[in-house]
Amino acid sequence: MKKPIAEFIGTFTLVFFGCGAAVIAGMGTGPTAIDILGIAFAFGLAIVAMAYGIGMISGCHVNPAVSFGVFLAGRMPLSELVGYVVSQVLGAIAGAAVLALILSGKTSGWDGSLGQNGWGAGYLGEYGVVSALVFETVATFLFLVCILGVTQKGAPNHLAGLAIGLTLTAIHIVGINVTGVSVNPARSIGPALIGAGSNPQAVVQLWLFIVAPLLGAAGAGLLFKSGLLAPDES
Fold first, then answer.
1. pLDDT-based confidence at residue 230 (cuts at 50, 70, 90)
2. Rounded CA separation 93/96 (Å)
3. Which of 62, 87, 174, 184 could form a disulfide with 10 if both were Cys (CB 3.0 to 4.6 A apart)?
4. pLDDT-based confidence at 30, cuts 50/70/90?
């Protein structure tokens, strides 16, 4: 049970810190507010923290797309993949639920926002579905190239957590205005389900944040499986 428990805690942390930064610090004004850069670093630093906290136990996937890519690269069995994904989704739901509990105590009121992903009219930069689909697919592909690259045999993996966290930070800087950035089905599922009462549109649009990350992860996983992105033998 060590690995599923670690993945639950890691995904809980990602949603709690990342989405929490967006909806608690991000909704502030004056010196209490943060901008896109602050939110991006909250997600990235959450990954860095968990990489060093649980990485030795489960590899710190905290993302079904990452686990899927690792599986397709031939680095984990199907039975383990299923356990990881279930734990990650449950961790994201729990993280969003605790965040909602905290936000419900705001005396001036709370609009139900939990950092849900989305696209279209009224959502952040108001990008269309094609832009959202392309961004999430490409960004997840590049994220997995980093993850699978820095964790492969011969890579300086003592720096893997930092590299992965900074890559996620860069992805958020570019993409927050497009989709709020998912690249992680669990991160999208948790806030969408817990906040469904106030934002049902997030549930309707959830399919994209499951399909696109899995497509991007599949591309990267298969490239590493083929050996095209593996270092030459010396």
1. confident
2. 5
3. 62
4. low
User: Which residue is it, tokens 């009219």?
Assistant: 121
3-state secondary structure of 109: coil
Kindly state whether residue 233 falls inside one of the protein's structural domains. no
Residue 89 domain flag:
yes
Query: What are the start-end ranges of the H helices in the chain?
Result: 2-20, 36-58, 64-72, 78-103, 129-150, 160-179, 185-194, 200-204, 208-226
Angle between helix 129-150 and 64-72 (nearest 10): 60
Give the Å distances, CA to CA, from 80 to 60, 69, 74, 87, 189: 13, 13, 12, 11, 20
Does some domain include residue 232? no
Q: State the distance between the two ends of the chain, measured CA to CA, in whole angstroms.
A: 38
CATH of the domain at 200: 1.20.1080.10
For residue 98, what are the domain limits?
Answer: 2-226
Of 31-35, 81-85, 115-119, minimum mean pLDDT range: 31-35
Q: What is the pLDDT of residue 234?
A: 57
User: CA-CA distance, 140 to 182, in Å (whole number)?
Assistant: 9
Asked if 107 and 169 count as a contact pair (C-beta separation under 8 A), the reply is no
- Which amino acid is it at 168? L
AA identity, residue 91: G
The predicted-structure confidence for 75-93, as pLDDT tens digits, reads as follows 999 999 999 999 999 999 9
Per-residue pLDDT for 5 more than 90? Answer: yes
